Structure formats: C-alpha cells, structure tokens
Amino acid sequence: MNSSLRNGLLLVTAVGTMMFPGERVRAADNQVAVPEVGTSKVQNETYSTGIETAVSDYLAPTIKGEYFKMAFTNVDADTFLFIRSEPSRESEWVGKLYPGSASEIIGPVGEWTRVQSGSVTGYVYTKYIITGEEAWQRADEIMSESSAEHITEAVPCAESREEEEARLAEERKKAEEEAARQAAEQAANVSTLGQQIVDYACQFIGNPYVWGGTSLTNGADCSGFVQSVYEHFGINLPRTTWDQEYSGTGISYEEAMPGDLILYEGHVGIYIGNDQIVNAINPSKGIGIIPATCMSIKTVRRVV
C-alpha cells in the first residue's frame, strides 16, 4: 500500500473515532449526541432516564452571581414542607419550609432532594419544590425587584426545629404577658367602677325595706335595691334573686371586689370589701351593711 493511501486510511479512522467538544453520552441508549442548549433539556433527559441528576448539571450563573441550584417551596399558603434528616417520610424532621421559601440544592435531584436553607440541611420531597429553569426565572424576578445582594436575603429561609420551638415559646410568653396586662387593666376598671357603685349604694343606707319595691328612696327589697343601684350605671339586671344568680361571671368569694354581687338563698347584696355587703336587709332594719358571711353564700357574680 502506497504512503498516500495509507495516510488516507489513517485519516478516515481518526475522524471516525473523534468526539468533538460538547458531545456526551445519553444514559438511555448510549448513543453519542450533542445536547440542546439550556438546562431544561438536561433536566428532561435526566428524568426520562430515571437517573438522578448531579448538582453540577444545574450550575448556570445569573446576573447577580447566583447559580442555577435554587429551589423554592411549592406548597399551599396554609401548609409547609418538612426538611427531613434522611430521604424518607419516616425520618425525623429537622426544619420546615413555608410557602415561597428558598433553599439551595446541595445533592442529587431524585424523588428526594438534599437542600440547605438557612441553618437547616436535609432532604425534601422533590414534588413540592420548584427547581431548574422555573426556579432560576423566579429568582431572577425576585432579585430584579429587590435591593438585596443575595436571594436568601430577599425571601424567607427554612425554620429549624429549634428555631420554631424558640419562636413558639416567645409567642406564648408575649401572649401571657398581654393576657396579664389585659387582666390587670380589667381589674383596675372593675375596681374603679365597683367602688363607684358601692359609694352610690351607700348613700341610701337607712332608707326603708319594702317587699317588691325598687325605689332607693321610698323603699326596695334586696333584689330591687341591687337592680336599681346597677341601673344607675347603665347595667341591666334581672328583677329577682333567682335570675340574678346567673348574671355576669361567676367568681369565688376570695376573688370578690367592691361592686360584685353576693347571692344567698333568696337574698342578694353588693360587696363593699372587708367581708361586708350593703343591702336591703329586712323590714325592721331597712337598707344597711351586714357581714358578707353571715349566711351561706350561694354564688358570687361579677357584672361590671
């Protein structure tokens, strides 16, 4: 074989085995092919073969210096996505991603994806995150409308189990403090109004007791006296002691403050403090003050 022919055969052989830059082997059929431009093509090929795609397949720089490895939580507004310690629903959860939260893909993308978000690293169910080109587009939109230097500064990150516990504890503390503040404020209001009621009721000490009466000056029975005193302050009470037993809120005698009702079997009076009540006592004594514990107390009601 002459040298020209031999050189020609060598050239044909070399050309036939050469792989040009950009060529890769498809896992599905082992054929050489130049992939289409764009990471969406890489993603489509990966899922079609059933093989997990490496994080490096996602890398694509953006104008902000970020990389194409972002993921966004894709769950309903009132739900969240667990980050688990292992790629299994039975594994312990180490954090939570709320709607729209951002994370970074740091492991293969398959049924489960390993991510890092804030201080939390673990696995999320891939079905509930947005990745690839859609995630890049969302990140680009967010960054174009934000002055933040990094996407994680513009959107929320995961909340770890420890961070959630601390947050809930702080929320409980604030709720308790607010409840205590409101209770103190209410007690102060009750005390002020209650004392005003007592002062008003005591003006009628010495006036007559009249069965069935409601007049603070001309005569009243026990329930009529109480009803008329409270009516002066815009508080409407039932006419009889049996109905007044269910007015307002029941409290213990130890909690009684001036202005509370002290009810007995068939009798009622207004607590004035120091274990005493002002009341329409009976026909012989009229309106006056007696010990609050002189009879068996049936109930104490706060109506202010």
Automatic annotation (TrEMBL):
It comes from the Bacteria. The keyword GTP-binding does not apply. Residues 149-175 are annotated as: Disordered. Keywords: Hydrolase, Protease, Thiol protease. The keyword Protease applies. Residues 68-133 form the SH3b domain. Residues 164-175 have a biased composition (Basic and acidic residues). Residues 191-304 form the NlpC/P60 domain. InterPro entries: NLP_P60_dom, Papain-like_cys_pep_sf, Peptidase_C40, SH3-like_bac-type. Gene3D superfamilies: endopeptidase domain like (from Nostoc punctiforme), SH3 Domains. Belongs to the peptidase C40 family. This is C40 family peptidase. It comes from Dorea ammoniilytica.
